[in-house]
Amino acid sequence: MEIGHKAVMEMREKNTAKYWQKLDRNMVQCNLCNQNCVIHPGKNGLCDVRENRNGTLISRMYGLATTVHADPIEKKPLYHFMPGTKVLSYGTLGCNLKCKHCQNFETSQCQISELHLKKVKALEVPELIKKSNCSGVAWTYNEPTVWFEFTLEGSKAAKASGYYTCYVSNGYIKEEPLREIAPYLDAINIDVKAFTDKFYRQISSARLEPVLSTCKLAKELGIHLELTYLLIPGLNDDAEELDGFCNWVVKELGTRVPIHFSRFHPDYKLTHVSHTPATTMEQALRAGVNAGLEHVYLGNMPHTRFENTYCPDCGALVVERVGHTTKIVGLDGNKCKKCLNELPIVVSTP
Prior knowledge:
The protein is of the alpha/beta class and about 350 residues long. The protein is built from nine helices and 20 strands. An eight-stranded mixed beta sheet has the order 7-8-10-11-12-13-14-15. A three-stranded antiparallel beta sheet has the order 1-2-3, with no helix packed on it.
């Protein structure tokens, strides 16, 4: 089918990336994330999905998804945001980090030619949410920042129709784009890879400080925030590092931010590293409790009570979880039924 001039111009406009600047010799610099890639003509940034096409930065993945699937919101993991609801999850290709332990490397680190891609439209996001019997949309599976333009338009459409929106992110987005999407972003889970710059540089090809800044900015902007920390034996799990991370959270984000310590399993380029021992998971839990964190969870483990939410004041069970099955047992709105303590749990669409 022949495409008219107007349609061609609209496609070009959609594919043109946000947050970049033109440099000499037709080079461009991407300013979307903290990699600050300088990209030569015909080449891509580190994420491999933002291309310098004749001196213009193009988003190669606008409107192209690898996955559109309904999930429990707890899978993100978001335990204190709309518990028990289903969320329509979108993923695409690419990532702005190069983590050697990536557990989604099949999509985050592969080439466009290697996977079947679905054409999706931002304005159709609300209709698909409704058809999937979901309550909102999550940009997840790979790093949502790399197709920022689509997630922004899709989030706007979802919010306009009364649905919630969330990011599952590595936190490497820069301040200006995060501020732009913030009015249309209700929740974010940020994966803090470690609490040393050495780990970030050697394992993820990134830096720690921009991630911590994103955590603080998300909280400042009023986005519901939860953090995930994957414990990798011998790389980011020593007692001093865990204490430092937990104390930083308390000091900069407060005691009420939910923390998800997750168990590592061998994958991608770290298949030689063993699973996280249960003793290390328990050590992380103690570090969080000793620092004063009120809600610390352990994930990727056989079912334990550390998936549940308890009132920090009276100890009553308020949300019970077995895997991704959730049962609200002790909440009246977002208050503990037993002692009426108000908990940091979002229970109605923002």
